[in-house]
Structures are given as C-alpha cells and as structure tokens.
Amino acid sequence: MRIRPTVAEINLNHLRNNFRKLKGLLPGGVPWYPMIKADAYGHGAVECARVLREEGATALGVSLVEEAIELREAGDEGQVLVFGMFETHGEKLVAHKLTPVLSTLKQVEALHPHLQNDFRAHLKINTGMNRLGFMKEEFEELKKLLRLTPQLKIDAVLTHLHSGEDADTGNSHTQAQFLEFQKRAEEFQPDSARWHIWSTSALLKRTGMKNRMGAAWPAAWEKMGARPGLCLYGATPFETDFELDPVMTVKSQIAKINHLKPGETAGYGAAFTARGECVLGVVPVGYADGYHRALSNAGIVLVNGERCHVVGRVSMDFLLVELTHLYVNAPAPVEIGAEVVLFGESSFGPRLDVREVGDLANIIPWEMLTSVSRRVPREYLG
Questions:
Q1: Cα 27 from Cα 16, distance rounded (Å)
Q2: Which letter does DSSP use for residue 72 in this model?
Q3: What is the pLDDT of residues 99-115, one digit of tens each?
Q4: 155 phi/psi in degrees, rounded to 5
Q5: Is 241 helix (H, G, I), strand (E, B) or coil?
Q6: Nearest CA to 202 among 237, 154, 155?
Q7: 268 is a catalytic site residue
Q8: 65-73 vs 45-54: helix axis angle to the nearest 10?
C-alpha cells in the first residue's frame, strides 16, 4: 500500500525501445550484455532482466554474486555475468551456474577446487583503467593456471574503457585501448565475436570514431560486443542527438502551499529569503529518498509540467519549490495535489532530464539514478 504520493515510475516499454535503438548502432549478430548491476541502476533488476531477455540479450551483467543469486531466485535461468570481486565462495558461482568475469589469479584459484565439469568464464584484460583486469605481466602465470584447470573454458574476453566519451576525437585514449585490447585478447580468444568492449559512452561515439579512423578501422572491431548501462535507462553522460526515453520518472505532489511576505525565510538555516511576495510549495521528497542535499537552492522540478526552482535546503523528508511565477502567469493557481516531477516524464508532456538535474550540483546521472532509495516505491508500466 502506498500512502505518500512519492513514487518512481518505471516504464518498461521505454527500456525495451531503448535497447532496440541501441542495437541499431552495431552490426547485427554481435553479442549484447546489458548491465543490470545495482538493482538495474535503481530500476529493479528482476523486472528489467525479464524485458532484456525477451529482447534477445546474450547475457546480463551484475557486479555482485549476491545480485546474480537474486536473479536466480527470481527464476532467471539465462547467462549472468558477475563482474565484481570474489576471492572466496567460488562454489556459489558454480552452484548457481553463474559466469564470472575473471580479473585476478586468486579468482581462478578460488574456482579450481569446485570444478567437476566444464565451466564458462569471461576474462578481463587491463588496458589502462588500472582497476580490475589482468596485467600483461600476469599473462604467463594466468596461462599456466588455465592449463592446470582444463574445465575452465574462456567463453569471451573483455576490457573496460576509462574515457569512452573521447572515442571520436583525434587524441583518443579509447582508440589506444581498443588497439591494446585487440593485441592482448588474441592471446586468449582469436575470435573477435567473443570480445566485448563497447560501453555507453563509446557506443554513442562509435560512428564518429569509425569515420575518423577510416580505412584504419580493423574488421575485427565490427564483431565486438557491447555492455550498455546508463543509456539503457534513457540517460546519457553527455549531450547527444541520439534519442532515448527515460525509463524512471520520480514524481510526487504538492502537499502544502505557503504564502510568504518579503523578508520571510524558509527551511533549515533560513537558507531562502523571500525578496517579495512569494508562494512556496512543500513536496514530500527529501535526501532520504535520494534527492541530493547538494540540490538545495539549485534544483529544478516540473510542477504540472512547468519548470520551478527548488529553494532553501533539501531536508530529509521534504523540499520546497517556488510557485510564485505560476500564480502570476498560469490560468489557474497551483493546488494541493499538483504533480511534481523530480526528473523524468511529466504527464503534462515536458521532460526533465536526470543529467540536467544532476549537473546543477555536479552529480553524475549514474549517481542520481542509483541514489533513489528503497523507501520510494517502484511502480512498473508496460
């Protein structure tokens, strides 16, 4: 039962359509590994997994073993890639038929005693991120371990781009990583159809990257797979003409309306002072719901489709929005119960991009989405 009007609406039709659009960016037949870690970036991993499976995902990607087990317990029987660390509990990956993305020698050793039959894994190679993935100095020891563990079958090889947004520039870290990856991946898996590298940023820049490289573009890169994350959910890390639909809309309602006189203040620390006659709306959303306190006196919302500023400090359970201009310009004053969209799609038509909201406080869209807390109920559409 939902009593408070604050909710995160998850439009699964938008997720479905976004995935279809993204698949149009690569040649047909390449593998796709949609990322649904962190509860599908706050959207609900089980629900999103069902849609992405229906749309032909090769496998689904999570970070934690626990996230993968949640999918299994919900009845998902498809391939699940586990990208995070596990130095122990290799038996859980085997028991639940999960596919680890191996990044360390310790992980290979953790699996060894539990393998009775052939077991698939993906291999991550470090090409400059310098976080996870095998360094080239470890390759000989890795090959030795793999020879000692013949049941472990390397199904695919991957790397992690650190600056995918520069893929189409002349001085591209991404192009350098691609070239390094191709050289290293061939040592473990000669078929580039079993390589995956494309991230959200690089996918959106792929056409420009290919055009810039021209004849230098290797044929092997045409077959490499993709791991879309943020863009699946209708958000992008930068301005782009590639149109996606927001999957999550966080909305609430005006719960109270206050009329202030010039000089009166509002909120903790009297952080807002009315310069003239002023109308404020109280919205039952706060930082406990994932609306960042850094958006105090900075945020923008949509009230009945009209842009309004967040004023004063965002508190744990409430925020304030200025409605004065709506009383001056709108045909009818805002009433209690008016729709407030924190980001996403207004039922009145306009949209408020999650990246635009985050940019007001230097918060990346990944963080904005995954911050929406569990006390904001998810309601699924489509």
A1: 19
A2: H
A3: 999 999 999 999 999 99
A4: -80, -30
A5: coil
A6: 237
A7: yes
A8: 70
Lookup: tokens for 321: 């929005």
How many residues in the chain?
382
User: Residue ranges of the domains in the chain?
Assistant: 12-233, 248-381
Percent of residues, the chain, with pLDDT higher than 70: 99
**DSSP notation for 75-99:** T--S-EEE-S--SS-HHHHHHTT-E
Domain spanning 248-381, CATH architecture: Beta Barrel (2.40)
Token digits for 12? 């699964």
Residue among 86, 117, 114 at smallest CA distance from 100: 86
Separation of first and last alpha carbons in the chain: 20
Distance separating alpha carbons of residues 108 and 331, to the nearest angstrom: 67
Calculate the alpha carbon distances from 11 to 15, 223, 249, 290, 341 in Å.
Answer: 7, 31, 8, 19, 15
pLDDT tens per residue across span 152-164 = 999 999 999 998 8
- Given 136, 183, 256, 268, which residue is catalytic? 268
Which of 37, 124, 205, 251 does the annotation list as catalytic? 37
Among 128, 118, 104, smallest CA distance to 155 is for: 118
Using CA atoms, how far apart are residues 178 and 264, in angstroms rounded to an integer? 59
Query: What is the homologous superfamily of the domain 12-233 according to CATH?
Result: Alanine racemase (3.20.20.10)
d(CA 111, CA 103): 13
Tokens of 28: 């047909």
Q: Residue 332: helix, strand or coil by DSSP? A: coil
For residue 358, which of 346, 366, 350 has the smallest C-alpha distance? 366
**Cα–Cα distance measured from residue 245 to residue 227, given in angstroms and rounded to the nearest whole number:** 18
- Partnered with residue 62 across adjacent β-strands are 82
> Helix or strand or coil: residue 283?
strand
Query: Is 37 annotated as catalytic?
Result: yes
